[in-house]
Amino acid sequence: MSALLAVEGLCVRFAAREGRMVHAVEGVSFSIPSGGALGLVGESGSGKSTTARAIAGLQAPSEGRVLLDGEPFGRQSARSARARVQLVFQDAQGSLDPRRPVGWSVEEPLALQGSGTAKTRRARAFAALDACGLDPKLSLRYPHELSGGQRQRVAIARALVCEPQLVILDEPTSALDVSVRAQIVNLLCDLRQRFGLAYLFVSHDLAVVRRVCEEVAVMYLGRIVERAPRSELFASPRHPYTQALLAAVPEIGRDLALAPLALDPASPLAPPSGCAFHPRCPRRSEVPAQRCSLELPILQTHGDAALSCHLAAGAVPRAHPAAPGSGASRG
Amino acid sequence: MSLLEVRNLRVSFATPRGSVQAVESFGVSIDAGETIALVGESGSGKSVSALALARLLPTPPARIETGEVLFEGRDLLLLGERELQRVRGKELGFVFQDPTSSLHPLMTIGEQLEEALLVHERLPRTSARQRAEWALAEVGIAEPKARLTAFPHQLSGGMRQRVMIAMALLTRPKLLIADEPTTALDVTVQASLFALLRKVQREHGTALLLITHDLALVSTFARRTLVMYAGAVVESGLTSELVARPAHPYTRALLRSVPSLSTSLDHALPVIPGTPPDPAHPALGCAFAPRCEFALTACHQRRPALVALSTSASGAAGVRVYNRRVACTESERALAAEVSS
């Protein structure tokens, strides 16, 4: 099976003060099949947004490559190829021109591509707005005249109008109110099914990721530490970090695991030695000979899941019940 | 007597396009050591209510139209500026969402912590420094002595919020008002800050007014909850009961629309149609009626008052309604039927 998006050994490094380097993303590899959705989760500073920006060509990778349908993808790609990957950010206000009606902003990508006539471009913009649940009459309004939820719908319409194959969503629901967030989550699920879109969904909100994506990768200080199908990751997380992250999510009707981790995250400027998670890891004493603080664990693949933890290295990989429906999308 | 008793607080803002009613009616009573949550979406008036009760809103443009704020029996709205400052600095503590804008960027953490003690407790500088160091240790900051000389930008977001909590607790306030204290932080850091708040409350008997949009967080942390919508409290009660059996259609819909780690993915997430109302154009009737699935004609014509949920309606349904108050009179029958099902 050839993947729509393949990321191979992606590294992004920034120069910091005093000649030091920040390893924002280190050796990240994954792939997304056509029409698939991968959620990229982790705390702030984990490199999840930088990974997304590097894939979109907004940030030059220091190493590694990004392939779209087997072809190298990046800034140098032809405009028509780049149109196949679109972006939606957290802050829709910042993505829309405040001095133009929103309809203009939705048409703009088509105009930049020189695609069609003014009339067909308008028709496509109206269709995209309609698909996002907005009355095309709103296209004459300015961004400040719309609510936060409506603005995010416009930003999604602007991404859709190019008929992309992959949409990269960076915290698309984080700035929205609870009642509006649910609407946008449903819209994203709906659009994916209708148009066969693939998503790379970056978020710190695990419950939203669970709704939208059938596969999840967990990042910690620049590296993927666990990757698994949704049904496995949420039911039986294996990395101690994933376990702590899930335990810390407040849930109605469940007692909050207060302080699942004793320490706050380390700074990406000074990552700990060995496994970067080891100073916070509640289970590091289970691994003999201080291996966690000395040796970097390798991301090992077991079936359709992957894990980077010394704890699991000696253990028998968990048996996967052959569940053909495990990756099935929601109805 | 309650520690804090707020009655009938009404706040408006003067804008170029006329007066906007930000808080239409707010009331709460908090006992010593109690944790109460104030839940609502943006624009619901939850933060304005909290700022108004401590008279922290700039007037004008804000105007407190009516209300009483009895703190240990004294009405804060009637106090002179000097007395007010004494209460605010010593008896009330505040923690806001963004510690970066609450901390002075050019003063060290130590100087900022000591300031409150020098002003309110008139401590000599050396003992103020010692108290500041203890305070940092208490909120779980490693190497507190070294951190005293750090500037805010040298600390992580979670660390800065710990400093804010340390600062708010320095003078041992009786009430801590925390407005979205962990919204900008990661869930793991949020969990450890709430562990810290719980420890502080247990050790010092501090009452906590927690303002948040996160219903799931509230459900695990606060004993009682008030739900606000469009500037008014629409439901209040014991959190455990309110979450299990919400009575107001807004509370019900809000609870269902929260994505969770365990609900079935077979169906789309239930949503509340539409968007919260614009306070510049208030509705005549119930503010939630345009989005409410139970709305009757009468709901659009008259604004319901916050009343105790009648025991006849709920008693038959077997719902315990300890002190539950709901602002939804017209739909009460439909609700009673729903609640009993």
Task: Tell me about this structure.
The complex is a heterodimer of chains A (about 325) and B (about 350). Chain A is an alpha/beta fold. Chain A has a domain at about 35-55 and about 80-215: 3-Layer(aba) Sandwich (Rossmann fold). Chain A is about 30% helix and about 20% strand. In chain A, the strands form 2 sheets. In chain A, strands 6-7-8-3-9-10-12-11 form an 8-stranded mixed β-sheet, sandwiched between helices. A 4-stranded antiparallel β-sheet of chain A has the order 2-1-4-5. In chain A, helix 7 (about 180-195) links the parallel strand 7 and strand 8. Chain B is α/β, with parallel strands linked by helices and about 350 residues long. Helices cover about 35% and strands about 20% of the residues of chain B. Chain B is built from 13 helices and 12 strands. Chain B has helices spanning about 45-55, 80-90, 100, 110-120, 125-140, 145, 155-170, 185-205, 215-220, 240-245, 250-255, 310-315, 330-340, and strands spanning about 5-15, 20-30, 35-40, 60-70, 75, 90-95, 175-180, 205-210, 225-230, 230-240, 305-310, 325. The radius of gyration of chain B is 21 Å and the shape is globular. The chains are: A alpha/beta (about 325), B alpha/beta (about 350).
Work out the helix count of chain B. Answer: 13
* Overall shape of chain B: globular
Main pleated-sheet profile of chain B: 8 strands, mixed
- Rg of chain A, Å, rounded: 21 Å
Protein traits:
heterodimer, A: 331 residues, alpha/beta, Rossmann fold, four-stranded antiparallel β-sheet, 12 helices, 21% strand, B: 341 residues
